Amino acid sequence: MPLENVKKIMLVLSGKGGVGKSSITTQLALTLSLQGHSVGVLDIDLTGPSIPRFFGIEEQKVRQAPGGWIPVPVHDKQSLPARGSTSTSSSQHNGDAATNPPTEVGSLSCMSLGFILANRSDAVIWRGPKKTAMVRQFLTDVLWPPLDYLLIDTPPGTSDEHISLLETLLKSTSGPAAPPNQLAGAVVVTTPQAISISDVKKELNFCKKTGIRVLGVVENMAGFVCPNCSECTYVFSKGGGQVMAEEFGVPFLGSVPIDPAFVVLVEEGVRPVYPEGTVVAGKTAATVEKLDGEASKEGLLVDKYRDCSLAPLFDGIVANVVEGISKSG
């Protein structure tokens, strides 16, 4: 079974659409990779597969191999130069090495229906049984390399895809060949508004009834980072996710604001730049030299993400998730 190569599996869930599950999945994956872990991302949102676009690999296609599909690589395991240095400024890199050493990143690969569709704008009009069969095929026929973590980005709600996913996962991860506690649990995503909280509560009840451990709640879109000044404005309020987590007795992982620089990074591949003094979640955003034209697009996505204001925030979120997983074995 391909899942035997995976040490830990995490689901990213929400009872409501449009809360940013794919954005959270992407940043969890990038952060885990920056911490040296080998990571895979499986996108089972069959009617809205957005993971290929988030990672900037939507033009890629999966390859067939004996026994299944080979996932699309985002980047291989490698060493990134110290922050603030470039591949062409070796003297600066050497000077930084003692105080700001290179970052060893783990490999990252993805699988999504978006890689299989003939046209990325094609509508997927499938009945439940075909969706169920596709989800099971993704779980049994993808030839993942050895992974520390497999993140599964799911559609909203508690639909056929979720039931098929859990049935297949529970069967696959309970066998004697599966690593202990392979199905680590779920990260649940919400936004601060009451309408979102009411829907996401259903997802928490779904986890409770199906026996899926909730690793924590992330409150997304909790604020807006102005690209022209250092202010973070709470346009959708704040705190609803934390109250919900406390009500259900599950960990609250943190609040994540909307960062236009992250949007530009995903959409255009441009390295994030912030006005001096920008503070996000109590942390000062890194000030980097602004580059023009193609120079601002150079480098891997994971390298450019290091300059995003959300990166330090996700360092803390991922640290809490990993600690929670380790406590359960």
Task: Kindly describe this structure.
There is one protein chain. By secondary structure, the protein is of the alpha/beta class. The chain has one domain (2-87, 102-324): Rossmann fold (3-Layer(aba) Sandwich). The chain is 33% helix and 22% strand. The protein contains ten helices and 15 strands. The chain has helices at 21-34, 51-54, 90-96, 128-141, 160-173, 194-210, 240-248, 260-268, 301-305, 311-327, and strands at 6-13, 39-43, 63-65, 68-70, 72-75, 78-80, 103-105, 108-112, 147-153, 183-190, 214-225, 232-233, 252-258, 279-280, 283-284. Strands 1, 2, 5, 8, 9, 10, 11, 12 and 13 form a nine-stranded mixed β-sheet that branches. It has a two-stranded antiparallel sheet with strand order 3-4. Strands 6-7 form a two-stranded antiparallel ribbon. The longest helix is centred in the middle third of the chain and has 17 residues, at 194-210. The chain is globular, with a radius of gyration of 20 Å. It starts with 5 loop residues before the first strand and ends with a helix. Mean pLDDT is 88; it is low at 86-98. Belongs to the Mrp/NBP35 ATP-binding proteins family. NUBP2/CFD1 subfamily. This is P-loop containing nucleoside triphosphate hydrolase protein. GO terms for molecular function: 4 iron, 4 sulfur cluster binding; ATP binding; ATP-dependent FeS chaperone activity; hydrolase activity; metal ion binding.
